[in-house]
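Marked as duplicate of an earlier ticket. Keeping the data here for the record.
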Amino acid sequence: MEQHLKEKLKQLAQKTRSEIGEQENNVKYKFIIPFLESFGYKDFDFEHSAQGNRIDIFIQSNSEHNILVEAKGYDKNLDDYIYQLKKYCDDKGPILAIISSGEEIRFYSPFLPKPDFSDRILFSFKREHLTNEIIVNKIEKILSKENLENELIDDFIRERQKEIKEANKEIQSFQNFNQEKIAKITASITNLKEEIKRIEENIKVEENKVKVFLDERIEQIDAVKVKYFLPKTESKIKLRNGGNSEEEDDENKRKKAKTPSPQDWLKDIPELSNIRGLYNWADICKHLNIEVGADSARRSLGKWINKCRPLWKQVPDVD
């Protein structure tokens, strides 16, 4: 391919979406026709009749081989038009079928021995790939007008078919390799899940054993106390835990709980937030002339608020 034609393809590759346009006719005239011209074509049969419809571009040659070209809008998914392309090919029997959205370009060979037309694909590439000389050279073998006229296109399609066959073998080998690894990992995951289930069941069994042993211990202790006329003062929960009773545990939790900060509460009380010297709940009670008595300052303040300042934020409880 001459250098100026390669430069023309590079310019097409670098065009923006807005420069090409969204509509089918924009794609046809601003991309597809200049693209075909780069490979030697000048005469085009537009809106060629087929199956009661119109083929966008039909290229007839001096040989028996023809090329069919379909343009689609820039946002269109080419997969949605494969059936239409097949119908046109069944009617016209071209050696090559091209379909493009202006962003993606696909080449199909209708005579490849594949039952599904979508599998008869020769190339699929983006317009931006036209800057890649390797791709351009491969396309030129199949698309150049010279090779169409002298029927060398048949040889190059067969050559491309062999390349695709080798590529599919390589892909299949990778798929098999990964599939074997995936199967092993999946089986390992299944075994781990079953093992976890067994462990959980064993934990439940052992927990029940511990409960039985603790209950037996309680009964034995109670029997000794009855024998020596001693009161049963310990709860079962305490003895099972080997420590405090439930009531004692709750009390210890209350003792360990952090007392709410008066400073955090004062921030939400405009009448008190700017007064200095209110460092604790007792200081606040003293400022408000609240008698604390035997109760805690915080509780006394809470009772006073409920009675005298119900709109104030409530004093927080111990967590």
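See parent ticket for discussion. The chain has a mean pLDDT of 86.
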